[in-house]
Amino acid sequence: MEWTFRTAEEIAAALRAGEVTAVELADEAIARIERDDKAVNAICVPDFDRARAAARGADRARARGEDRPLLGIPVTVKECYNIAGLPTNWGMPRYRDHMPAEDAIQVSRLKAAGAVVLGKTNVPLGLQDIQSFNEIYGTTNNPWDHDRTPGGSSGGSAAALASGFGALSIGSDLGGSLRTPAHFCGVYAHKPTLGLAATRGMVAPAEPALPVDLDLAVVGPMARSARDLTLLLDVMAGPDPLTLGLAYDLTLPPARHERLRDFRVLVLDDHPFIPTGSAVRAGVHRVADALADGGARVERRSPLPPDLAEAAILYTRLLFSGSVARFPVEPPEQLRARAAGLGAGDQSLDAARLRAMVFSHRDWIEANNRRELHRHGWRRLFAEFDAVVCPITPTPAFPHDHNPDPMQRRLDIDGVGHPYFDQLVWAGLATMPGLPATAIPAGRSPEGLPVGVQLIGPMFEDRTPLRLAELLEQKIGGFRAPK
User: Fold this and answer.
1) How many CA atoms lie within 13 A of 464 on its CB side?
2) CA distances in angstroms from 465 to 115, 238, 255, 376, listed in the order given
3) Cβ contacts of 61 within 8 Å, gap of 6 or more
4) Set 111, 120, 132, 153: catalytic member
5) pLDDT digits over 175-226, tens only?
6) Per-residue pLDDT tens for 243-292?
7) For position 327, what pLDDT does the model report?
8) Is position 445 annotated as part of the catalytic site?
9) pTM of the entire structure?
10) Which among 91, 216, 302, 358 has most CB atoms closer than 10 A?
11) Residue 154 bears catalytic tag
12) Confidence band for 1, pLDDT divided at 50, 70 and 90
């Protein structure tokens, strides 16, 4: 029996029943990678010898009567996570040979749960793109259409899952980096509530692996089924034992409902800054219709959502002020001169990006204060609704675009060009206030490309959008392997 596209839950049951061994699973996954990854280029750092050794250890552990959540299950890890003995360079040539001394906390949790790590998956330079290509490892292609991107920055992980290279993967999300690749490749991903899963060791090369509290950025699971997301999130979730873990244990509240007809859902598909392409709008409507058909209360208008335009501006300011601090794009004096030349009435996202690049600490505090007001607005909304359904990006996967100046790139939405980074506004809707969001498949475009949507839930109630994702998977179907 071929196990390539089986879910982690199915594989775990088969392992417990003795229908397959961890060694057989690892060998099958490795053979598929060696056969098919030349065209996709998802696995940038293979670790096959250690994977086979880990699989043998998993089989011995099971023979001793042990059972762990991921015991013997083949997985991949996004390149940006430290793994002792493997390079971690974030695609940056000057750190090509950077070799961390110890595993990231999430890699340690994977291994403690019994997972067999096959290798690391490709990323964009510095994790700073909606595509996945860099000078060291080259370009990762979308398994559905090799002329298109799998998304970024967890594009290698999404492409690996869609190609059958392991049952699970872990990624990270700051600008939709879990959700956009899932949407582009037809798989599942979950952006956890900010701070829910410890991030130590998911760190730029040459920086110390400290237990810091990141702003906006999270780490999270990717899979080929909604239930597998929950399985992997339960392994990943919890505070860092060096800080909050000294005092706190994690207990997530259960999902608000177990039946589709009990959910109250708000559907959003229009944004003031960017149109929603016809293929993505059709995906949102398909999910909304399935919810209504299942008896859920579905609303398409409400006065409760925080102002989407202000939310996009705030997200842009917080995102780009942090990004330029870590990865300068040009000398500060040039940025300040350009920002000073903006008209006072220019409230475009391009202007917000430029102003954010020269933010003062006072500017950031003011933006953060506005964010707290938005968070409170979301609390009011989730007193009336259980989830929000909306796009992840306005289009399915777009053709590779390697223009070295991303500000010059254009995103084609139904034949009309738009600024490349404007597509981040939908991902930012959940990221800016730190809300959990689950990306699910929602059909195909007329060209046959995957289309996904996101289910945004209440803060620290991650099990609510995850349960809704499971129910929708039963209703409309889920992952399909590329032909």
Assistant:
1) 24
2) 25, 18, 8, 19
3) 68, 71, 114
4) 153
5) 999 999 999 999 999 999 999 999 999 999 989 999 999 999 999 999 999 9
6) 999 999 999 999 999 999 999 999 999 999 999 999 999 999 999 999 99
7) 80
8) no
9) 0.98
10) 91
11) no
12) low
For the chain, the average pLDDT equals: 97
How confident is the model at residue 329, as a pLDDT? Answer: 80
| Token digits of residue 428 | 């930012």
Active site residue: 157, 177, 225, 321, which one?
Answer: 177
The structure tokens listed for 427 are 């991902």
Which residues have CB under 8 Å from 2's CB, separation 6+?
Answer: 28
Domain ranges of the chain: 8-258, 261-418
Let me know if 132 is a catalytic residue.
no
Query: Could you tell me how far CA 25 lies from the centroid of its own chain?
Result: 25
Instruction: Give me the sign of the Cα torsion angle 218, 393, 228, 468.
Output: positive
What CATH class has 8-258? alpha beta
Residue pair 121/43 in contact (Cβ under 8 Å)? The answer is yes
Between CA 6 and CA 131 the distance in angstroms is 27
pLDDT at 220: 98
Tokens matching residue 81: 């996570």
What distance separates the 2 farthest-apart alpha carbons in the chain?
A: 70
- pLDDT tens figures, 349-370: 999 999 999 999 999 999 999 9
Catalytic residue among 78, 111, 120, 191: 78
Distance of alpha carbon 382 from alpha carbon 450, whole angstroms? 29
Model confidence pLDDT, tens digit, residues 102-155 = 999 999 999 999 999 999 999 999 999 999 999 999 999 999 999 999 999 999
Nearest to 383 by CA among 459, 295, 284, 293: 459
